[in-house]
Design goal:
By secondary structure, the protein is of the alpha+beta class. It is built from two helices and seven strands. β5 (90-99) and β6 form a beta hairpin. The radius of gyration is 15 Å and the shape is globular.
Amino acid sequence: MPVEGWSDGWYIVPWQVVFRDLDAFGHVNNAVFFTYFEWARTRLWFSLTGFEQAHEVGFIVARAECDFRQQLSLEPIELRTRVGEMRNTSLEFLSEIRRDNGQQIAATGRVVVVFYDWKRQTKVAIPDEFRQRVLELQK
């Protein structure tokens, strides 16, 4: 299983599907795919910002979508995430869930988030430093 980190512009998080993620048919329930996207997105956020705590996640989810391509079972998978389009206060996280040592795409996802100031309860502009860090790491 690969180690967590950057590869070819993607942030990769290795994962092992666990029994609780399965439904009565023995494959990963479709709602769990969004949890996988969430975990990879959070790990990417921590990598980009240097933060480590849940209360340091500075965005809220505005939209989430998934295209399911293959079923998953109890197996090792890779969660891949990168930043897509960045606007003034929002950006998109693009994700892939891969199986068979990264060879097959089981699902793709797109999550739009809005940068958010939790204390003021308002959206905020994406800092230039964050934009630059994304560009540096996703070359």
